[in-house]
Prior knowledge:
The structure holds three protein chains of three kinds. Chain A is of the alpha/beta class. Chain A contains eight helices and nine strands. The two termini of chain A are 36 Å apart. Mean pLDDT of chain A is 84; it is low at 1-5. Chain B is mostly helical. Chain B folds into two domains: 2-57; 71-279, MetI-like (MetI-like fold), CATH 1.10.3720. Chain B has eleven helices and no strands. Chain B has helices at 2-23, 30-55, 65-74, 76-108, 113-127, 135-142, 146-169, 174-182, 187-223, 231-240, 244-272. By secondary structure, chain C is an all-alpha fold. In chain C, helix 6 (102-133) packs across helix 13. The longest helix of chain C is centred in the last third of the chain and has 36 residues, at 214-249. In chain C, 37% of the residues are buried. The mean pLDDT of chain C is 80. At the B-C interface, helix 1, helix 2, helix 5, helix 6 and helix 9 of B face helix 1, helix 7, helix 8, helix 11 and helix 12 of C.
Amino acid sequence: MKDTTNSAPVIEAKGLNLVFQTADGPVQALKDVNLTINRGEFVSFIGPSGCGKTTFLRAIAALEHPTSGTLTVNGMTPDEARRKRAYGYVFQAAGLYPWRTIAGNIKLPLEIMGFDRAEQDRRVAQVLDLVELSGFGKKFPWQLSGGMQQRASIARALAFDADILLMDEPFGALDEIVRDRLNEETLKLWARTGKTIGFVTHSIPEAVYLSTKIVVMSPRPGRITDVIDSPLPKERPLEIRDSREFIEIAHRVREGLRAGHHEE
Amino acid sequence: MSALLFALLVWLAAWALNVWLAGSPVAKTRFGKALVPLIFGATLLVLWEGLVRGLGIAPVILPAPSAIAAKIATSLPMLWQDFAQTILKGAIPGFLIGSGAAFLTAVAIDRSPFLQRGLLPIGNFVAALPIVGLAPILVMWFGFGWESKAAVVVVMVFFPMLVNIVAGLQASERMQRDLMATWGASYLQTLVKLRLPAALPFVFNGLKIASTLALIGAIVAEFFGSPTFGMGFRISTEVGRLGLDMVWAEIAVAALAGSLLYGIVALIERWMTFWHPSQRH
Amino acid sequence: MPVLTVLGLILVIWYAASVWMNSTWVYDQAERAGTMVSFAEMVPQTMTQERPLLPPPHQVGAELWEGLRLGSGYEVFLQSADQPILDRLQATLDHVFSKKGLVYHGYVTFKGTMMGFGLGILFGSLLAMAIVRFRVMDMSVMPWAIISQTIPIVALAPMIITVSSQMGLTDRDVPKAVISAYLSFFPVLVSMVKGLRSPDQMQLDLLKTYGAGEGAVFLKLRLPASMPYFFASLKVAVAASLVGTIVGELPTGAIEGLGARMLIGSQFGEPLIMWAALFAAAILAGLLIVAVGIVERLARKRMGVPA
Ligand SMILES: Nc1ncnc2c1ncn2[C@@H]1O[C@H](COP(=O)(O)OP(=O)(O)OP(=O)(O)O)[C@@H](O)[C@H]1O
Ligand SMILES: [Mg+2]
C-alpha cells in the first residue's frame, strides 16, 4: 500500500462460486474465488482450457450470475455497474458488424448510450487515432486485416470511457509479430488512459509482459492457485522479456500452472 | 421442312458460338455473362418458330412465337387490364400484406420462446402444405373481386415468410448479443441495431420465395371465380376456346411480371445486404 | 408441449371464428321466419349447418372420417364375418378404396405426385451434372432455369392439359406429372449444383495426383459429396410436387384427385367437400414429408453422416 491513489478496490470477489446446470449434471466453473483488483491495475488471467477464465470475466460483466459468494464492482453489483456503462469488453474474435463501417461500429455503443452526434464523431476520431486506424473509418470490416479488425474492436471498447476494460484472449487469433505490436500498443494505451484492465491469455510471456498482477488458475473445479504481483517497472520495452526478473516471474507462473495440472 | 432445317442450323451455329464464348475471356466480363444466356434464349425462339413452321404444327397445339408476338401487339389494352387486375390488385397487395403480417407476427412472438417453440414446427409444416387448396374457400368468403385473390396470396406468403424471419431473428451471434448486453442496451436497441440487420439475408430469402408464390396464388384464385377479366380468367376461358396464342401472350406477361418482381426483390437485397458474404464478389 | 398448446389455441380460435362467421346465416333464417334467436340459441345452430361459411373442426373431422371410409370399412369387415378372411379383407379394401372415397382421390394425387417427383429428380440431377461439367451449359441454361421458376406454372397448367388431350393423350397423368416435375426439378437442380461443386480445390488436386481421370473424379468425389445436398433438397421437392399435382388437377374437366374434389366442392357450393379435400391433402403432404425424411435419415446413416 505504498501508492494510495492506486489502491481503491474496483473489483472484489469473495468466496465466489459459479455452477452451470448442464444436461449431464452440474459443472462447477468457479470454486471459492477470492480476488481484489485495484484501480489502474493490469490483471492477467492464465490457466489451462476450461479453468473458468472466461466465466470469471463474464461474471464481472454481469453476463453470468454467480451461484454464491459476493462480487462487487466499484462497490455496486455487476448489474448496476453495467447500467452505469462501466465495461468495455473485447472478445477473441473482433465481432464487428459487417453492415457498418469501422467508424459506424465504434459509434454503435455511443448511439446506444445516447451520446450526441458531434460527440460521437469526436470520440470516433480520437479512438481511431489511439489504435492507429485513422483513415480507415469509412472502410467495412471485411476490407481490413485480422489485426486491424481486432484493433478496431478495441477502439470500440475504448470509445465510451468505461473505467474497466475486459479482454478475453483478444490477440489469440493473431500471428506473433502482430501480437507483439499490439501488446506494446496495449501497454501504451493503458498508461495513457489509466484504465483497470482484466486480460485473459494462454501465453505466459504475454501475461508477464503486460501485467501488474498475474492470476494463475486451474481447472475442475475452476479456482485460483496463485496470484503474482509483478515487480517489473511500468515502462516496459519489448527487450524486457530477456531480463532476469522477467524470466523469473515467467518461471513462477509456469510452476504454478504445472502444480495445478499435477493435482488432477 | 426447310424452315426446320434452317432453324436447326441457326441453333447449332449459336450453340457453337456460345461454346466458344464460354471458353473465351469474354465470358468473365459482365457483358459476356449477359450475352451467352441471351443468345441461348433467342435461338430457342428461332428453333421453336422453325419447328412450328417446318412441321406445320396446328396453332391450337403450339402457336409460333411470331404469332404470339402479333397477338400481344394487337391486344395490349386487354393484357394491361388483366395485368392490373391480377398483379397490381391481387398479387402485390397480398404480397405486401402477407409479408408485413409475417414480420409483425415474428417480432411479436420474439419475446416468447414458448410461442416460438409451438409455432415454428407448425409454421414449418404449413409452409410445406399445398395452401393453394385454400383458394376456393377464400373465394367463397371474399367474393369474385380482387380481394379474394389478395387474400389467397396473403395466406400463401405468410408461412414461408414467418419461418424465415423467425430463423433470421435468431441468426445474430451470441458474442454480438453479449456485447450489446455489456453496453447496457435495451431489448429494443438490440432488436433494431443488431438482430434486425442480421436477419435481413433470411428475410430476403423468404421474400424471393414469396414473390413467386404471390403470382401463383393470384392466378389460381381466379380459376375459382373472378370478374370477366384477369390473367387466370383469360387463360382458362381462352384455353376453352382453343385461343392458344392469347394464352401464350398471358404467359409471356406472367413471366415478365414474375421475373420483374423477383428482380426487384433481388436488387433491394443487393442494396441492403451488400455486406453479406454471398453478395460480395 | 408448446406445439400442443398452440394447436389447442388454434382450435379455440377456429371454433370462435365459425360461430362468428356462421351466425349471419342463423340470424338471416330467423329474420325470414320472423323469430328472434338469443345468443345461446344461435351458437348450437352454427355448429351443424349443411353449408357453413366456416365449418367447425368437428364437422370437418366427421366429413374427413366419412370420406376416408375407415369407419365404414371396419363395419364392412364386421358384417362379412361368415366369409373367409381373405375375402373379408378384400371387401374391406374395396370399400375403402372405392371411387367415392378420399383414399382413392388421395391415391390418384399421390400417383401423380410420385411421377412428377421422379421426373423432377431425374431431370434436375441430369441438368445439374451437365451444368457442372460444361461451362456453356452453366452460362446459357442456369439463368433460364431461375427465370423458369418465376413464371407462375399455374398459367401453363390448363394449356398443358388441353394441348396434351389435343395430341391424343386422354390420360391426365402425363400432363399432371409434367406440371409437378416443373415445380420439383428446381430445388433438386440448385442443391445438386451446389453439392457437385462442394469439393474444394485441395481434394480435387489430391485425386489428380493419384492420376484420376475426369470420370473417376466425378464418381469418387463429386457425386458422393453432392449426396447430402441432394437428400436435403428432397423434402422441398416433394412438397412442390404435391402442389404441382393439385394445381394440375384443378382446371376444368378433372374428376379424380384431391384438386378435383376441391374444384367440385367449389362449383357445387359444398364447403364440407372442399375442407375435407384440403385436410386430406394436408395429411398426404405430412405423410410424404415424413417418408422422405425417413429415406433421408437412412441414406445419411449409410453414408456415415450423423443425422
Ligand atoms: N454456458 C455454459 N454452460 C455450461 N457450462 C459452461 C458454460 N460456459 C462454460 N461452461 C463450463 O465451465 C467451465 C469453464 O469454462 P470457461 O469458458 O470459463 O473456460 P476458459 O478458462 O475460458 O477456457 P478456454 O481457455 O478454453 O477459453 C468449462 O468446464 C465449461 O465447459
Ligand atoms: Mg475462454
